[in-house]
Protein backbone atom coordinates (compact mmCIF):
# COMPACT_ATOMS: atom_id res chain seq x y z
CA UNK A 1 0.00 0.00 0.00
CA UNK A 2 1.36 3.42 -0.89
CA UNK A 3 1.58 6.14 1.71
CA UNK A 4 -1.13 8.26 0.11
CA UNK A 5 -3.67 5.46 0.65
CA UNK A 6 -3.09 5.42 4.38
CA UNK A 7 -5.42 7.49 6.59
CA UNK A 8 -3.45 10.33 8.13
CA UNK A 9 -5.57 10.45 11.30
CA UNK A 10 -8.04 8.02 12.78
CA UNK A 11 -10.77 10.11 14.40
CA UNK A 12 -11.88 7.25 16.64
CA UNK A 13 -8.39 7.00 18.18
CA UNK A 14 -8.28 10.77 18.67
CA UNK A 15 -11.71 10.74 20.33
CA UNK A 16 -10.66 7.82 22.56
CA UNK A 17 -7.69 9.87 23.69
CA UNK A 18 -10.04 12.82 24.21
CA UNK A 19 -12.24 10.71 26.51
CA UNK A 20 -9.10 9.80 28.49
CA UNK A 21 -8.31 13.51 28.76
CA UNK A 22 -11.76 14.23 30.19
CA UNK A 23 -11.33 11.40 32.70
CA UNK A 24 -7.91 12.78 33.64
CA UNK A 25 -9.41 16.22 34.21
CA UNK A 26 -12.04 14.76 36.56
CA UNK A 27 -9.34 12.97 38.55
CA UNK A 28 -7.09 16.02 38.75
CA UNK A 29 -10.08 18.16 39.69
CA UNK A 30 -10.89 15.78 42.54
CA UNK A 31 -7.23 15.80 43.59
CA UNK A 32 -7.20 19.61 43.61
CA UNK A 33 -10.38 19.72 45.69
CA UNK A 34 -8.77 17.43 48.25
CA UNK A 35 -5.42 19.26 48.21
CA UNK A 36 -7.15 22.61 48.80
CA UNK A 37 -9.42 21.04 51.43
CA UNK A 38 -12.51 22.01 49.47
CA UNK A 39 -13.82 18.43 49.63
CA UNK A 40 -13.10 15.62 52.07
CA UNK A 41 -12.10 12.98 49.57
CA UNK A 42 -8.87 11.03 49.16
CA UNK A 43 -8.01 10.44 45.48
CA UNK A 44 -4.44 9.44 46.36
CA UNK A 45 -5.33 6.84 49.00
CA UNK A 46 -8.81 5.58 48.10
CA UNK A 47 -8.69 2.30 46.18
CA UNK A 48 -11.51 3.18 43.71
CA UNK A 49 -9.81 6.49 42.92
CA UNK A 50 -6.44 4.77 42.50
CA UNK A 51 -7.94 2.21 40.12
CA UNK A 52 -9.54 5.07 38.18
CA UNK A 53 -6.16 6.85 37.94
CA UNK A 54 -4.40 3.67 36.82
CA UNK A 55 -6.98 3.04 34.10
CA UNK A 56 -6.51 6.60 32.83
CA UNK A 57 -2.71 6.33 32.81
CA UNK A 58 -2.86 2.90 31.19
CA UNK A 59 -5.14 4.24 28.45
CA UNK A 60 -2.76 7.08 27.57
CA UNK A 61 0.23 4.73 27.48
CA UNK A 62 -1.59 2.09 25.44
CA UNK A 63 -2.65 4.73 22.91
CA UNK A 64 0.94 6.05 22.81
CA UNK A 65 2.04 2.59 21.66
CA UNK A 66 -0.76 2.39 19.08
CA UNK A 67 0.07 5.87 17.80
CA UNK A 68 3.75 4.99 17.43
CA UNK A 69 2.77 2.11 15.15
CA UNK A 70 0.37 4.26 13.12
CA UNK A 71 3.00 6.97 12.69
CA UNK A 72 5.53 4.47 11.27
CA UNK A 73 3.26 2.41 9.01
CA UNK A 74 4.96 3.78 5.90
CA UNK A 75 8.42 3.49 7.37
CA UNK A 76 10.32 5.12 10.17
CA UNK A 77 11.08 8.80 9.58
CA UNK A 78 13.61 10.17 11.99
CA UNK A 79 12.77 13.88 11.78
CA UNK A 80 9.05 13.64 12.71
CA UNK A 81 9.88 11.09 15.40
CA UNK A 82 12.52 13.32 16.99
CA UNK A 83 10.24 16.36 16.75
CA UNK A 84 7.44 14.53 18.56
CA UNK A 85 9.87 13.09 21.12
CA UNK A 86 11.41 16.52 21.74
CA UNK A 87 8.00 18.04 22.42
CA UNK A 88 7.18 15.31 24.96
CA UNK A 89 10.59 15.65 26.66
CA UNK A 90 10.16 19.43 26.85
CA UNK A 91 6.69 18.97 28.35
CA UNK A 92 8.02 16.51 30.90
CA UNK A 93 10.82 18.90 31.86
CA UNK A 94 8.32 21.73 32.24
CA UNK A 95 6.16 19.63 34.57
CA UNK A 96 9.18 18.67 36.68
CA UNK A 97 10.45 22.24 37.02
CA UNK A 98 7.00 23.70 37.73
CA UNK A 99 6.13 21.12 40.41
CA UNK A 100 9.60 21.31 41.96
CA UNK A 101 9.08 24.98 42.75
CA UNK A 102 5.30 24.96 43.32
CA UNK A 103 4.94 21.66 45.20
CA UNK A 104 8.42 20.51 46.27
CA UNK A 105 7.04 17.95 48.73
CA UNK A 106 5.72 15.83 45.85
CA UNK A 107 7.36 17.17 42.70
CA UNK A 108 7.01 15.08 39.55
CA UNK A 109 10.41 13.56 38.82
CA UNK A 110 9.08 10.76 36.57
CA UNK A 111 5.45 11.20 35.60
CA UNK A 112 3.41 10.06 32.63
CA UNK A 113 5.12 12.38 30.12
CA UNK A 114 8.54 11.13 31.22
CA UNK A 115 7.28 7.56 30.83
CA UNK A 116 5.82 8.19 27.36
CA UNK A 117 9.09 9.78 26.23
CA UNK A 118 11.32 6.94 27.45
CA UNK A 119 8.89 4.21 26.38
CA UNK A 120 8.77 5.74 22.89
CA UNK A 121 12.48 4.96 22.65
CA UNK A 122 12.29 1.55 24.33
CA UNK A 123 9.46 0.51 22.00
CA UNK A 124 11.32 1.23 18.74
CA UNK A 125 12.78 -2.30 18.27
CA UNK A 126 9.34 -3.81 18.88
CA UNK A 127 7.95 -2.03 15.80
CA UNK A 128 9.56 -4.80 13.73
CA UNK A 129 9.32 -7.73 16.14
CA UNK A 130 6.40 -10.21 16.17
CA UNK A 131 3.42 -8.86 18.17
CA UNK A 132 3.25 -12.07 20.23
CA UNK A 133 6.86 -11.58 21.37
CA UNK A 134 6.04 -7.96 22.24
CA UNK A 135 3.12 -9.13 24.40
CA UNK A 136 5.37 -11.63 26.20
CA UNK A 137 7.90 -8.87 26.97
CA UNK A 138 5.05 -6.61 28.12
CA UNK A 139 3.87 -9.31 30.54
CA UNK A 140 7.41 -9.65 31.94
CA UNK A 141 7.73 -5.87 32.36
CA UNK A 142 4.40 -5.75 34.20
CA UNK A 143 5.22 -8.70 36.47
CA UNK A 144 8.84 -7.87 37.35
CA UNK A 145 8.19 -5.30 40.13
CA UNK A 146 5.77 -7.75 41.73
CA UNK A 147 8.51 -10.35 42.21
CA UNK A 148 11.74 -8.34 42.30
CA UNK A 149 12.77 -5.14 44.04
CA UNK A 150 16.18 -4.17 45.37
CA UNK A 151 17.83 -1.54 47.54
CA UNK A 152 20.24 -1.07 44.63
CA UNK A 153 17.54 0.93 42.85
CA UNK A 154 16.73 3.05 45.91
CA UNK A 155 18.83 6.02 44.80
CA UNK A 156 17.46 9.16 43.09
CA UNK A 157 19.21 8.35 39.82
CA UNK A 158 17.30 5.04 39.58
CA UNK A 159 13.88 5.90 41.00
CA UNK A 160 12.54 6.02 37.44
CA UNK A 161 12.91 2.25 37.16
CA UNK A 162 10.19 1.48 39.70
CA UNK A 163 12.27 -1.32 41.25
CA UNK A 164 13.10 0.35 44.59
CA UNK A 165 11.52 -1.33 47.64
CA UNK A 166 9.15 1.62 48.17
CA UNK A 167 8.17 4.47 45.84
CA UNK A 168 9.30 7.95 46.81
CA UNK A 169 6.72 10.66 47.23
CA UNK A 170 5.52 12.22 43.99
CA UNK A 171 2.18 13.56 42.81
CA UNK A 172 2.60 11.68 39.51
CA UNK A 173 4.82 8.60 39.47
CA UNK A 174 4.73 6.35 36.37
CA UNK A 175 7.97 4.31 36.38
CA UNK A 176 9.34 2.09 33.61
CA UNK A 177 8.39 -1.06 35.50
CA UNK A 178 5.50 -1.86 35.22
CA UNK A 179 4.10 0.96 33.06
CA UNK A 180 6.14 0.38 29.88
CA UNK A 181 4.06 -2.78 29.56
CA UNK A 182 1.04 -0.68 28.55
CA UNK A 183 3.00 1.00 25.74
CA UNK A 184 4.28 -2.35 24.47
CA UNK A 185 0.75 -3.75 24.59
CA UNK A 186 -0.32 -0.77 22.46
CA UNK A 187 2.48 -1.49 19.99
CA UNK A 188 1.40 -5.13 19.71
CA UNK A 189 -2.26 -4.15 19.26
CA UNK A 190 -1.34 -1.54 16.67
CA UNK A 191 0.80 -4.01 14.72
CA UNK A 192 -2.02 -6.56 14.67
CA UNK A 193 -4.57 -3.92 13.65
CA UNK A 194 -2.44 -2.63 10.77
CA UNK A 195 -1.63 -6.14 9.54
CA UNK A 196 -5.36 -6.88 9.25
CA UNK A 197 -6.27 -3.51 7.72
CA UNK A 198 -8.22 -2.46 10.80
CA UNK A 199 -6.66 1.01 10.75
CA UNK A 200 -8.21 1.75 7.33
CA UNK A 201 -11.58 0.38 8.37
CA UNK A 202 -11.61 2.42 11.59
CA UNK A 203 -10.68 5.57 9.71
CA UNK A 204 -13.60 5.07 7.34
CA UNK A 205 -16.07 3.80 9.94
CA UNK A 206 -16.55 6.97 11.98
CA UNK A 207 -16.08 10.68 11.54
CA UNK A 208 -17.43 13.02 14.24
CA UNK A 209 -20.39 15.10 13.13
CA UNK A 210 -21.89 16.32 16.41
CA UNK A 211 -19.92 18.82 18.50
CA UNK A 212 -19.09 16.45 21.42
CA UNK A 213 -17.35 14.02 19.10
CA UNK A 214 -15.56 16.79 17.21
CA UNK A 215 -14.42 18.38 20.47
CA UNK A 216 -13.09 15.07 21.80
CA UNK A 217 -11.25 14.37 18.55
CA UNK A 218 -9.67 17.84 18.48
CA UNK A 219 -8.59 17.49 22.11
CA UNK A 220 -7.15 14.06 21.35
CA UNK A 221 -5.15 15.43 18.44
CA UNK A 222 -3.63 18.07 20.71
CA UNK A 223 -3.40 15.97 23.87
CA UNK A 224 0.03 17.26 24.95
CA UNK A 225 -1.11 20.89 24.90
CA UNK A 226 -4.32 19.99 26.75
CA UNK A 227 -2.35 18.03 29.32
CA UNK A 228 0.01 20.92 30.01
CA UNK A 229 -2.63 23.65 30.36
CA UNK A 230 -5.56 21.90 32.03
CA UNK A 231 -4.10 21.49 35.51
CA UNK A 232 -2.94 25.12 35.97
CA UNK A 233 -6.39 26.26 34.86
CA UNK A 234 -8.33 23.87 37.12
CA UNK A 235 -6.03 24.35 40.11
CA UNK A 236 -5.92 28.14 39.64
CA UNK A 237 -9.71 28.40 39.50
CA UNK A 238 -10.20 26.23 42.59
CA UNK A 239 -7.43 28.09 44.42
CA UNK A 240 -9.28 31.36 43.82
CA UNK A 241 -12.49 29.76 45.09
CA UNK A 242 -10.66 28.56 48.19
CA UNK A 243 -9.11 31.97 48.85
CA UNK A 244 -12.15 34.13 48.12
CA UNK A 245 -15.21 32.07 49.07
CA UNK A 246 -13.92 29.64 51.70
CA UNK A 247 -10.61 31.02 53.00
CA UNK A 248 -10.69 28.76 56.07
CA UNK A 249 -11.42 25.56 54.14
CA UNK A 250 -7.90 24.15 54.60
CA UNK A 251 -7.89 24.67 58.36
CA UNK A 252 -11.47 23.43 58.76
CA UNK A 253 -10.76 20.33 56.69
CA UNK A 254 -7.56 19.53 58.57
CA UNK A 255 -9.36 19.97 61.90
CA UNK A 256 -12.17 17.66 60.79
CA UNK A 257 -9.57 15.06 59.78
CA UNK A 258 -7.94 15.46 63.19
CA UNK A 259 -11.26 14.80 64.93
CA UNK A 260 -11.95 11.73 62.78
CA UNK A 261 -8.56 10.18 63.56
CA UNK A 262 -8.93 10.99 67.23
CA UNK A 263 -12.39 9.45 67.45
CA UNK A 264 -11.10 6.33 65.68
CA UNK A 265 -8.40 6.02 68.35
CA UNK A 266 -10.38 7.15 71.42
CA UNK A 267 -14.11 6.87 70.69
CA UNK A 268 -14.61 10.12 72.62
CA UNK A 269 -16.09 12.70 70.27
CA UNK A 270 -16.44 15.50 72.84
CA UNK A 271 -12.90 15.05 74.10
CA UNK A 272 -11.57 14.79 70.54
CA UNK A 273 -13.08 18.12 69.56
CA UNK A 274 -11.37 19.67 72.61
CA UNK A 275 -8.09 17.94 71.76
CA UNK A 276 -8.07 19.16 68.14
CA UNK A 277 -9.05 22.69 69.18
CA UNK A 278 -6.10 22.68 71.60
CA UNK A 279 -3.72 21.34 68.93
CA UNK A 280 -4.72 23.87 66.28
CA UNK A 281 -4.52 26.79 68.68
CA UNK A 282 -1.04 25.73 69.81
CA UNK A 283 0.20 25.17 66.25
CA UNK A 284 -1.16 28.53 65.17
CA UNK A 285 0.65 30.27 68.03
CA UNK A 286 3.88 28.43 67.16
CA UNK A 287 3.66 29.39 63.48
CA UNK A 288 3.32 25.77 62.40
CA UNK A 289 -0.15 25.92 60.87
CA UNK A 290 0.92 26.83 57.34
CA UNK A 291 3.80 24.30 57.19
CA UNK A 292 1.39 21.61 58.43
CA UNK A 293 -1.21 22.46 55.78
CA UNK A 294 1.49 22.51 53.08
CA UNK A 295 2.94 19.14 54.18
CA UNK A 296 6.20 20.99 54.83
CA UNK A 297 6.88 20.23 58.50
CA UNK A 298 10.55 19.56 59.17
CA UNK A 299 11.61 16.73 61.50
CA UNK A 300 12.19 19.36 64.21
CA UNK A 301 8.71 20.78 63.58
CA UNK A 302 7.20 17.34 63.87
CA UNK A 303 8.93 16.83 67.23
CA UNK A 304 7.38 20.10 68.44
CA UNK A 305 3.95 19.01 67.21
CA UNK A 306 4.30 15.70 69.05
CA UNK A 307 5.13 17.60 72.21
CA UNK A 308 2.00 19.70 71.74
CA UNK A 309 0.02 16.50 71.24
CA UNK A 310 1.21 15.13 74.58
CA UNK A 311 0.23 18.36 76.33
CA UNK A 312 -3.18 18.59 74.66
CA UNK A 313 -3.85 14.91 75.35
CA UNK A 314 -3.12 15.39 79.05
CA UNK A 315 -5.43 18.42 79.15
CA UNK A 316 -8.37 17.03 77.17
CA UNK A 317 -8.07 13.23 77.06
CA UNK A 318 -6.40 12.06 80.23
CA UNK A 319 -7.35 8.39 79.80
CA UNK A 320 -4.63 6.62 77.77
CA UNK A 321 -5.59 4.88 74.55
CA UNK A 322 -5.54 1.09 74.64
CA UNK A 323 -3.25 0.86 71.61
CA UNK A 324 -0.59 3.06 70.03
CA UNK A 325 -1.74 4.61 66.78
CA UNK A 326 0.26 4.76 63.57
CA UNK A 327 3.00 7.40 63.21
CA UNK A 328 1.78 10.70 61.88
CA UNK A 329 2.43 11.91 58.38
CA UNK A 330 3.89 15.36 57.73
CA UNK A 331 0.55 16.83 56.81
CA UNK A 332 -1.32 15.45 59.83
CA UNK A 333 -1.77 16.34 63.44
CA UNK A 334 -0.86 13.34 65.57
CA UNK A 335 -3.68 11.37 67.13
CA UNK A 336 -3.64 11.44 70.93
From TrEMBL:
InterPro entries: HGSNAT_cat. Keywords: Membrane, Transmembrane, Transmembrane helix. The chain crosses the membrane at residues 12-31, 51-70, 82-101, 107-127, 132-148, 176-194, 224-246. Residues 9-232 form the Heparan-alpha-glucosaminide N-acetyltransferase catalytic domain. Pfam families: HGSNAT_cat. This is Membrane protein.
Amino acid sequence: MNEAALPRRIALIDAWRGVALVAMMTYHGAWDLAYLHLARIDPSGSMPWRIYAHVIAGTFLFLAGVSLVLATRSGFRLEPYLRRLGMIVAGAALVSVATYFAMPQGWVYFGILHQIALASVIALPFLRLPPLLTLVVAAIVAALPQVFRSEFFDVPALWWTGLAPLPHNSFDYVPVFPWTAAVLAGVAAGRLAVSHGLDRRLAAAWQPKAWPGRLLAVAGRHSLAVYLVHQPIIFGALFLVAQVLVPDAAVDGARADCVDRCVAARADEVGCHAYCRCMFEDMDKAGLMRPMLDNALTPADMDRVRGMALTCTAMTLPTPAPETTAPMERGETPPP
